[in-house]
Amino acid sequence: MSAATVYNFHGGIHPPENKAQSLRLPLGHPKLPEELILPLGQHIGQASRPLVAVGDKVLKGQTIAINNGFLSSFLHAPTSGTVKVIEERPIAHPSGLADVCIVITPDGADEWQELEPLRDWQKVSKTDLLAFLAEKGIVGMGGAGFPTQVKLQGAQKHNLSHLIINAAECEPYITADDMLMREKSLELILGIEIVQHLANAQQVMIGIEDNKPTAIAALEKVIRERQSNIQLVVVPTKYPSGGEKQLIKLLTDQEVPTGKLPADIGILCQNVGTCVAIYEAVQFGRPLISRFTTLTGDGFGAPQNVEVLLGTPVSHLLSYADANLSQVERIVMGGPMMGFTLDSLSAPIVKTSNCILAATRKELPLPEPEQACIRCGMCEQACPASLLPQQLLWFAKSQEHEKAEHYNLFDCIECGACSYVCPSSIPLVQYYRHTKAAIRDAREAAVKSDIAKQRFEARKARQEAEAAEKEAKRLERQKAAAAKPAAKKAAPTKVTEAPAASSAPVDEETKKLKVDLAIAKAKLKKLDKALQEAQERQAVEEISALQLQVDGATADIKEMEAKLPATAPVAKPKDAAPKVALSDEAKKAKVDVALASTKLKKIEKQLADDPDNAELRDKQSALQQELATAEARFAKLQPEQASSEAKPAAAKPVLSDDHKKAKVDVALASTKLKKVEKQLGEDPDNAELKAKQAEFQAALATAQAELAKFEAHAPVTAKPEAKATAPADDEALRKLKIDTAIAKAALKKAEKALAHAQEIGADNVDTLSQQVDEARGRAEALEQALTKGEVPPPAAAPKAEVNQLAEQIKQQKIAAALAKAQVNKLKKQLAQQPEAEDLQQQLSVAEAKQQEEEAKLEQLTNSQENR
Amino acid sequence: MALLRITSPHTHRGGRRTSWVMQMVILATIPGILVQTWLFGFGTLINILIAALTAIGAEALFLKVRGRPIAFFLKDNSALLTAVLLGIALPPTVPWWLTVTAVAFAIIFAKQVYGGLGNNPFNPAMVGYAIVLVSFPVPMTQWLGHADLISAGSTMSFSDSLSAIFGGLSTVDAYTMATPLDAFKHKGGLMSDEAFASVTALQAASLNSWMWVNLAYLAGGLALIGLRIITWHTPVAMLAGLAVVATFFYILDPSNAATPLFHLTSGAAMFGAFFIATDPVSSCTSNRGKLVYGAGIGILVYVIRTWGGYPDGVAFGVLLMNFAAPLIDYYTQPRAYGHKKPKSGVAIGGDK
C-alpha cells in the first residue's frame, strides 16, 4: 500500500472516543420483534407511496412502498407477515413528531420473496443499474439518507476524479461501520467496485480513521487479495473527519465550494454501509431491509453491534441488549455529537439509524447553565468550517440575519464542535439551527409575498386587457354591423349570427378561463421541471422555495378549475345550439371578409368615378387579394367547425348545422360568383377576375354538391348520431367523428382542386379525380362506420390517414410538376409570339396555379412532418 | 424513566469552564507577582487584595442592582481577574482609596453598566487604570526602585508597605524612583548613551529588575498559550509591532532613541501583551483580526512612550485599539471552508 498523503482541515476536536464498549461482543442478531414499524419517509425527499393495504400478506423483501417522485425511495418488507395497520406512529426524527408508518406483524416464517439479482451488472446499462438500485430502496446510510441512485445519477454528469468511501466514523461511541468492515470486508470492496463502475472515477479511496486497526487490516487483506487499485487512506482520529466536506479536504486537499456539491469538483462520496447494501442488492437481489446498528452507552448491560431489521422498535433492542432502563436518562439516535434524542421507545430503526446510545446521567451529564460568551475564540479554533462561531452567536442572539449570513452561517455543518469546547456551555449549534430556520422562514415568506404580488399584478393586467379587448370587440361589432346589411340579405347566415353574438360573452369567459388555466398549467410544468432540477442538484434551499411556488401554482389551477365547471355548464348547452359553435377565429375571419368586401366596394365606387387612377386600381387589386385570403381562411375554418361541432352530444342540431352551413356555402359562393361576373362585365379583359370567376364557380359547384350530399345523407346520419348520444362520451366514437370531418374536408379540398383543374383544362384532371374518388371513398367509409357506431381498429385509422396523406402528397407533387410544365410550355409559346394577349393571360393563370399547387404541396408536407 | 429531550451535541468538554479560564489567567500572573513582590515589596500583593475585595463587592452590589443572580456571576472569576490585573498594574505604594476607586470604576462603569461579562467594549482593568492615571498622576507615577539604587538601601518591608498604602508613609521617598521608561522619557537634552550612563533609574540594576518582571509575565503568558487559553496572535503581533517601530526609529536615530530590547523589557510590555491585550471580550476575535489589533497596540505603545504625555502606553494603546476592534473584525473574517476568499466588510442588504 503506498501511503497516500493525508491533508488537514481547520479545527476539529478530540472528544473521548468510547468505542471500545460496543466492540467487546460479537455482532448480534436480535429476534423478530412483535411488530415492525416502517416509516414511509426514511430518506431525504418525498415519502414513499404505500403499495400494500391493511391485512395484506407480505413476503420478506416484497416492495411495500414505491418512490413518490424523483427524490424518493422504495421500501420493502423486512420479514414475511401481515400488514397490521398503516397509521401515524412516533418515529425517530429530531422533531419528535409522528409520521405515517406501515406496521407489519411478522408471521415468524421469515419467508423470502423470490429474489432477482442483477449479476450481469457490468453488461446492463448504467441507467438500468441505477433504476435497479432505486427499486431495492438503497439510500445513503451515513447520515441523511439521500437516495443513492439520485446521488450517483447526479455524479455521472461530472467527470469524477475521486470516489471517496467514507469509513471514517468519527463520532464517538459508534462502531457500526467498523463492525461492518470487519464482518463484510469483501462485500464492501465488491460493492465499491459496483459504485466505481457507475461513477467511473479516476481514483478510488477509502478514508478511515486510525482508531480502527482491525477493520484496516481486514480491508487491506481483501484489497491485496483482489489486487484492487482502491486506496486505503488512514486519517488521524479527529472529529469531524467523517464529515463529507472534511474528509474530502483530508484526502484531496480540495474544498467543496460553498453551495455546491462534491460532484461539482469531481468527487463522489459514499458510505461503507451503502456500498455493502449495493453489493447485496446486485449480487443477491436483496433489498435494503436491515442494517448494522451500534447499541451502546452505560445504559446497556451488553453493549454491542447488531444486524437489525428496519422497523425494529428501539424498545426491542433495549431489552435485547439488557438495558437498565431505570438508569437511562437520555436515548440518543446517532452519536453524542450530532445525534438526536428519542422521546418514545417505540420509535423504529430506519435506514439511517447507525447507533442507539442509552446514556446514564453520569455518562452524559446535563449541560451546565449557559454563561456569557467571552469571545474566547475556542469555538473558532475548533470550527471545521473556519467560521467565527462567537460572532455568529452575537448575530443569532440579536437576530441580525443579514450579518449572520454574511458571516457564512449557512456553511455551518452543525457538527457541534463549537458547543463541545465552549467554556460558557453555550448551545451554539442550537442558536445556529434556530437562526437558519428563521432565515429560511423569512426567505419563504419573501417568496410567498413575491408570488402574491406577481399574481395580483397579473390579475390586474388581465382584467385591464379583458376590458380593453371587450371595448375593441364592441367597436368592431359596431363597424361590422354597419358594414353587413348587404351581405345579410344575401346570406341567411346572419339570422343565426345574432344569437351567437348574444351568447358570446359567456363563451368568451369560459375560453379565457381555459386559456388562463392552460397558462397556469404550463407555468406549473415549468416550475415542476425547475423543482426537479433543483432536486437533482440537491439544492435544499431552492427546493423549498420552489416547492412553495409549485404549491401556489397548484392552488391557482385548482381555483381556476373550480371556476371553469361553474361557467362551463352555462356555455355547453349553448355550444349545442346551432350557430354558437362558430369558433372565435371563424367569426373573426367572417368579420375580415365583411371588412374587406366593404373596403373593396368603396374603392370600386371611387374607381368608377375616376377610372384612370392607377393607385386606386392597385388598391383594388390588393383588396381583392385580401378579400380572397380572408374568404379562404373563413372557408378553411369551416371544416374545423364541423369537427368541433361533431363533438357535442346533441346530434340533431349538429346535423342541421352542417346542413345549414352547406346551404350558406352555396349562397355565399353564388353571391361571390355573381359579384365577380358583374365586375367582369365591367372589365372583360381582367385575367385575375376571370380566374376568380372560375374559382368561384368551382366553389359553388362544391358547395352545391355538398348540400346535395347533406340532403341525401341527412335522414341516414341523423339516426346513428342520435343513437350515439346514448353511450354519450364514447372517446373512440368522437375520434371517429373527427376523422370523418377531416376526411370530408379533404374531400372538399380535392373536389375543389379537381374543379379548378377542369376549369383551366389542366392535364392532371385524371389524377385529381382519382384523388377525389379516394377521398370520397374514405369519407364515406368513415361515415358508414359512424353510422354503424363501429369503431375501426384504433391503430388502423391513423395509419390509413398517414397513407392517405402520403398519397395526397404524391399526387400533389405530380400536380405541381404538371402546373410547372404548363407554365414552361406557355412561356415558350409566349416567347414565340410575344404579342399574344390571351397567351399572357393564360401564363399568368398558369403561374398562379403553379404557385397554388406548390403551396398546397408544402402544406401537405408540413402536416406530414407534424404528425 | 423520563427521557431527556435535548439537542446535539450531547457531550461537552468537561472542566474547561469560563471560571476555569479566568482562574488559569489569574494563576498565570503568579510568576510576575512573585518577581514584583521580590523586587518591590508586598505593596503589589496588598493592592491585589484590596482590589479583589473591592471588585467582588462592587460586582455583587451591581449584580443585585441589576437584578442578576449574584453567586452565579461571581463564580465566573471575571471580577477577580480584573482586580488582579489592576492590582499588578498599580504602583505598589498607591493609597488604598486609589485602588478602590480604580477597581470600582472598572467593575461598575466599564463592565456592569454595559451589561456585565462579555458585553464590555473596553478592557475594564485598563479603564480603571486610565481613570486614576489621569485623575491622580502623582501617586500613579511613583514606582519603587531597585534596592541597590534607592536611598533606603533595601526592599520595602511589609509594614512599610501597609503604612504607605493606608497611612501615608513619610519615608516613602526613600524607596521611590522613576521607572526606566519614565527616566528615559525625561532624560532632557541628554543623548541616550549619556542618559544610560548618568541617570540612576537607567542603571543596569533598575533595567534588570524590570527585565525580570517582564520575563516572569512572558513565562506566564507562554503557559496560557500552552493551555490554549489565549492564542499567540495578539501578544506576538503587539511585541512585533513594538519591536519593529522601535527598531525603525533606533536605526534612524540611535543617539536619541532607545533600543528595541529596552522597549520590550521595560514597563508593562509583556504584561500588556499577554494579559491585557489578550482580553477576549474587548479585543478582536478572528486570528487575522488579532494580528492587526496586536500590532496596533504595539505601535501605539511606542508612540505614547516616545511622544505622548505618559511614560508607558499600554493602557491607552489597548483602549484605543478596543475602539477599533469591531471595525477590524468586519474586515478580517477568516476564509470559511468552501469560499475562495474571505468575506469582509459589513453586510449591506444581504450578499447572498
Automatic annotation (TrEMBL), chain A:
This is Ion-translocating oxidoreductase complex subunit C. It comes from Maribrevibacterium harenarium. [4Fe-4S] cluster 1 binds at C373, C376, C379, C422. GO terms for cellular component: plasma membrane. Part of a membrane-bound complex that couples electron transfer with translocation of ions across the membrane. Residues 480-501, 639-652 have a biased composition (Low complexity). Its cofactor is [4Fe-4S] cluster. Its main location: membrane. NCBIfam families: PRK05035.1, rnfC. Belongs to the 4Fe4S bacterial-type ferredoxin family. RnfC subfamily.
UniProtKB/TrEMBL annotation, chain B:
One of its GO terms (biological process) is electron transport chain. The modification FMN phosphoryl threonine is found at T179. Keywords: Cell inner membrane, Cell membrane, Electron transport, Flavoprotein, FMN, Membrane, Phosphoprotein, Translocase, Transmembrane, Transmembrane helix, Transport. Its EC number is 7.-.-.-. Its main location: membrane. The chain crosses the membrane at residues 20-39, 45-63, 70-90, 96-114, 126-145, 209-227, 234-252, 258-278, 290-308, 314-332. It is found in: Cell inner membrane. Its cofactor is FMN. The complex is composed of six subunits: RnfA, RnfB, RnfC, RnfD, RnfE and RnfG. PANTHER family: ELECTRON TRANSPORT COMPLEX PROTEIN RNFD (PTHR30578), ION-TRANSLOCATING OXIDOREDUCTASE COMPLEX SUBUNIT D (PTHR30578:SF0). NCBIfam families: PRK00816.1, rnfD. Belongs to the NqrB/RnfD family. Part of a membrane-bound complex that couples electron transfer with translocation of ions across the membrane. This is Ion-translocating oxidoreductase complex subunit D. It comes from Maribrevibacterium harenarium.
